[in-house]
Every structure is written in structure tokens, then in C-alpha cells.
Amino acid sequence: MNGRTKTTWVTAFALFSLFFGAGNLILPPQLGFKSGELWWMVAGGFCLSAVLIPILGILAHSRLQGTMYNFAEKVSPVFSVIYCFIVYAISISLPSPRTASVTHEMAVQPFFELPYIFTSVLYFVMVFIFVMNRSKILDIIGKFLTPAILLVLLLLIGITLFSSDYIFGDTVFESPFSHGILEGYQTFDAIGAVVVGGVIIVSINLRKEPGNYEAKKRLIARAGWLAGLGLFLVYGGLILTGALLHQEFDEDISRTALLSGISEVQLGNTANLFLSILVALACFTTAVGIVTGTADFIKYRFANSRTAYTVTAVIGCVLGILMGQFNVGYIIAVALPALMFIYPITIVLILLNVLPARWGTPMVFKVVVATTVLFSIPDFLGSIGLGSQMGQLKFWIPLSEFSMGWVLPAAVAFVLVNLPGILNWGPRDSEDLS
Fold first, then answer.
1. Is pLDDT of 433 > 50?
2. H or E segment to which residue 312 belongs
């Protein structure tokens, strides 16, 4: 293996590890469990929003080679700062506490009769200690966690695929594909791509290889697609596994209980305990990373103030304790309204940054993002039970019944703003796109 190939694989694995959040593992099995013979449609929707869009986010980073701020700065500097603040606020309020809840349900609740609040307090006290001390212990542990979890999951998936009769149940979803897309929102992977892509850029620059912009762009793109393939195989395999084992569990089983149950049925008690411990450790490293990243961002915005860093860390851990005392299902339900608003904006920013600069001018960014925000409002209101307040308006918006009413308006806005360029597109312009 030559140096370039090795660097590509190392970068790909780093990307895979950053996306491969332990909390995400609880989502695919239940999707498959409830999708029946239409598991492939659910998997397609899930992988669209949880794999393809995040990888496109990495490709966008390969072009920008900047930070999350650069994703939205074409809309306006003020909007970009607000967007960054909202993303970090959501991160410490929802996915970070969810890691504590997943840890409780997988690694504490099966063995000890303790309340969620006990785990949540202890968990985020430890998170705070690590955030304030920036220990490298978690970085070292993290290098072994992802490979270990991946090996256990591949073993679990492989045993299921080779030992099942491939008998599927009925689906409970009215719209399997769109349900898969919306469940993919809960991975937070598109947001993760916007946030952590900059980390990868910094890491590559610190290694000082490869040397120029184009070489780094090719490296990140190749690594991104490799990481995406890995995510696709794991997510798809877990969805199929859940679908094949639909007769083994009660219909109302929770996400975490289903993952633990599948592991116990296929691998036995010892392996299930091992997986639970690995998931708990991986959740902890994720929480530390989220709180640290948020504190670093606030510190930077306040002239590298150590006080700002400490206050943000405290707020992040307090929010973690408050939200982490609830079960995973509740946190996922609470997260939905926030995701229905911020995820469409994130997807649009990713897609616009992937496109050639000709089709992503500042005016295009402004109009398309504004349109997306406007047409996301009915979906947001519907997610908090106020959809009826929109009257008949929602029924006139295409795809609103699937909670994706922003898609066609944003596409139309994109075409209309670019129409003059499309009409004048000549051979010279074609060369610019290559």
C-alpha cells in the first residue's frame, strides 16, 4: 500500500468514525423491524438523508476547505453566525443528552435498578471533567472503540443474513421511503458533516500532506465516498437485520431494547454485554466531543475567552443532565421539531456548496435558503401539533403530506434564479463546470 492510498484509507476511517455515532445504532434496527417486506424502501430513504447528504457535505468541505461558518457565509455573515449558534445549541441540547439516555438504557438499566437522573448526573459530571482537562485518553480509546463496535455489528449482521429464512412481516409505515428520510434526520449526520468536516480539513493541514488544494480535494472526496460506503453497508445491514427478526420481539419494543435483544439473540449474553459497554464508551466520547466543540466555538467568538469556554461547558453539561434524564424515545420526539426546521436548511446549504460556483452565487444562496426557511414553517408547525393552524395552505404545497414541503419550492427557486445563466449557457461555460 503506497503512501497516498494509506492516507486515503486513514482519512476515510476517521470520517467513518466521526459519523458512526453510537446513538445512531439504535435507529436502523427498529426501522427494519417495522418496515417488513418494504425494508429496502425504508433503507433507501434512511441512507439518502443519513449517508448520501452527509457525504455530499464532506465533498462540499473538500471544495471550501474551511469551517462550518463558510457553509452559510454566501447568504450573509450574520446569517452564518446565527446558523452556527443554532446548530451548536441543538447539538448540546439533543444529541449530546441522547448519548446519556442510550448509555442508561443499554449499559445501566439491564443490570441495575437506577433512575435515569442518576446516570445523567454522573455521566455529565464526567463529561465536564474531560472537557475542562482535554485529556487525550478518549482519543486513544476512540481509536479502538469504532473498530470493536464495527466488528461486533458485522458479526451480528452476518449471522442474521446467513441464518434467516427471509420471511418478512407487514409494514406499519404509510410512506416507507419518506419515513426513512425523516428518521435519517435523527442521526444528525448532515449537521455532523457541516461541523466535523472542518476538523478533517484541519487534521489534513496539520499533517501537511498532500500539498496543494486540488490534491487535498481529491483525498477528501475519495475518503468521503469510502466512508459513505461503510455507513451504507452498516445501516442497510442493521435495517435488514431488524426486518428479518421481526417475530422475535414485541411490537412495542423500544429502539435500545431492540438493539440489545438482537445482539443477545444472535451473539449471546456475553457479546451483548460487551457491545453495551462499547456503545456506552462511544456515547461518552461523542458527548465530550460535542460539548468541547461547542465550547471551542463560543470561545472563538468571544476573543478566545477561557471564561466563555467554561461557561459554555457548564451550560452544555447542565442541559445534558436536564434532557438526559428522559428516555431515548422522548428525546427523539422532542428533537423532531428542531430537525424539521434546521435540517432542510442544512441540506440546502450542503447541496449549494457542492455545486459549481456558477450555480451557487450569493444571490442563489439568499433566495434558495429564504425559500427553504419559509416553506419549512408548515412542516415545523405540523411537528409540534399546530399543522391545522395553516388551514388549507399545507395541502397546496407538494410533498407536505410527507413533511418535505420545502423540497420543490427550493428547487423551483434555484432554477428561477439561475434561469438567465441556463439560457446563456454556452461551450465556454461548459468548460467552467469541468
1. no
2. helix 306-324
Residue found by looking up cell 445512531 in the block: 24
Domain boundaries, the chain: 3-342, 355-434
Dist. CA 323–CA 318, nearest whole Å:
9
Residue pair 196/14 in contact by the 8 Å Cβ criterion: no
Say how far apart CA 253 and CA 250 lie, in whole Å: 6
Cα angle 415-52-417, degrees, rounded to a multiple of 5: 10
Class of domain 3-342: mainly alpha
Rounded-to-integer distance, Cα 72 and Cα 69, Å: 6
d(CA 105, CA 102): 5
Return the number of other C-beta atoms located less than 10 Å from residue 234's C-beta. Answer: 21
**pTM for the whole structure:** 0.88
Q: Tell me the three cell numbers of residue 249.
A: 420481539
Q: Is 167 exposed, middle or buried (0-12, 13-18, 19+ CB in 10 A)?
A: exposed
Q: Convert the pLDDT of each residue in 39-85 to its tens digit.
A: 999 999 999 999 999 999 988 888 887 778 888 999 999 999 999 99
d(CA 119, CA 325): 8
Residue type, 14: A
Q: Which residue has the cell 486513514?
A: 10
Residue matched to cell numbers 457541516: 194
Q: Kindly give, in sequence order, each residue whose CB lies less than 8 Å from that of residue 125, ignoring residues fewer than 6 positions away.
A: 317
Q: Rounded to an integer, what is the distance from CA 91 to the centroid of its chain?
A: 10
Of all residues in the chain, what percent are helix, strand and coil, respectively (each to 5)? Answer: 80, 0, 20
The alpha-carbon radius of gyration of the chain (Å, integer) is: 22
End-to-end Cα spacing for the chain: 30
